[in-house]
Amino acid sequence: MWTADEIAHLCYTHYSTRLPKQGKPEPDREWTLLAAVVKVNSAAEGSHDPSDKSLPVTKEVVSMGTGTKCIGLSKMRKSGDILNDSHAEVIAKRNFQRYLFHQLKTAVSLQEDSIFMPGTKTGMWKLKPDFHFVFFSSHTPCGDASIIPMLELEDQPCCPVSRSADAISDPMVLDNKRKCEEISAHLITKRMRTEPRDLPKEIPSDIAVHYSTGKEGSLQIPPDSSNSSPPANGPAATQGTVPVGVKVVDIYRTGAKCVPGGARDAQKPGVEYHQVGLLRVKPGRGDRTCSMSCSDKLARWNVLGCQGALLMHFLEEPIYLAALVVGKCPYSSEAMKRAVIGRCQHVSSLPRGFQVQELKMLQSNLLFEHSRCAVQAKTANCPGKVVPCGAAIGWSLVPEQPVDVSCNGFRQGATKKSVGSLQARSKVCKVELFNMFLNLVSSISENKRPESLRN
């Protein structure tokens, strides 16, 4: 029906052609992350199986987000007019909600085609059966899904990362969210080469770990873990993913911290540094955050849906994702399934219509042009540090103000004096989403009135 590369290419093209220059990384100095929701429309009524390749389909990006930042606890506001979490996945999901609000308002007014149709109950709506949604992320989500084993291969699993003297001397340096973490110097037994080469013959074909070189070729170890159930938690990130005879030299570290009051990471050298399956919060620079990791949020969306509590007042069923596609980066199929699906298998007593979804997970071979690895590869011989972009871009398929550029939780350009005003708000902060809900309620009430009494 569609491939991972098709989804990635569609999102990258949309990023290049539809998003403004404002908010994008400064060339050769900054990097960012990209996420999007793609609407897939199959021509056959009632068929929404992504594996069915016999049906003609149309694919369209309906929301997109970029960003790497989140605010600290001290900057949070009870008024709901600030974005606490500006990671790309969250920006894309919030803008997806904007799109859903608009589509439901369209369905209520009967003005044009909508993705929604009347439900079985009066005043309730549901998604038309020929639509489903694919979530794309240019990099593995931060948190549990990013805890991936490093195999002792002669090829680097990601593009080379320059090492400072301090980083080499400390084998447990944690990098920020989703950075291409470095293999500690004391764990490297021989110098790793960056040019692609064949995998060692002794590695069987069923290892559930994918590695990308950051160049044209890629090292891929195809997954075969659809029937396996990763452990909910534990100290090892390598269980069930590495065959006998292949040495694991370390694991990719996540900057996300364990939630206070719960189990902690062992922080031992090598593969026992992290404990997998734990809930984590995103790191802050000095000021700790209260934002859960993107792995945790995706797991929640896979149980509760992406629509949010406000839209559920008018929907018979949650809006679930059908598939999750990750761009070219360090990736593990089993780690993704553990983080997004496996940890929630014990959840029970959910309201009618809610359940843990068997989300399809795929990886693309296409690298995002503004990913950290891509930018570092271009600037390998240039002085200066590559840093994450401070701005976040949100885009939604809505008629009014589809683009929303924010920085530090407010609309880009907002001053201290303007904070608290309408002009300083992002279109996807909580108070703005609530205003969309009120607008929808008003439209529903207006359409219930006799035509002769309508304005």
Report on this structure:
The protein is an alpha+beta fold and 455 residues long. It has one domain. The protein is built from eight helices and 21 strands. The protein has an eight-stranded mixed sheet with strand order 17-15-8-2-3-19-20-21, with helices on both faces. It has a three-stranded antiparallel sheet with strand order 11-10-16. Strands 1-18 form a two-stranded parallel sheet. α2 runs parallel beside α8. The protein is globular, with a radius of gyration of 22 Å. The relative contact order is 0.20. About 18% of the residues have low confidence.
Number of strands: 21
Fraction in beta strands: 15-25%
Helix percentage range: 10-25%
Per the principal axes of the C-alpha atoms, what is the gross shape? globular
* Topology pattern, helix = H, strand = E: HEEEEEHEEEEHEEEEEHHEEHEHEEEEH
C-alpha end-to-end distance: 45 Å
How many distinct domains? Answer: 1
Which class of secondary structure composition applies to the elements? alpha+beta
What is this structure's SSE topology?
Elements: H1 4-18, E1 30-31, E2 34-42, E3 57-66, E4 68-70, E5 85-87, H2 88-109, E6 116-118, E7 125-127, E8 131-137, E9 149-151, H3 165-169, E10 209-212, E11 218-220, E12 248-251, E13 257-258, E14 280-281, H4 294-304, H5 308-311, E15 323-326, E16 331-332, H6 333-340, E17 360-363, H7 372-378, E18 387-388, E19 391-396, E20 403-407, E21 410-411, H8 430-448
Parallel strand pairs: 1-18, 8-15, 15-17
Antiparallel strand pairs: 2-3, 2-8, 3-19, 4-5, 6-7, 9-12, 10-11, 10-16, 13-14, 19-20, 20-21
Helix pairs in contact: 2-8
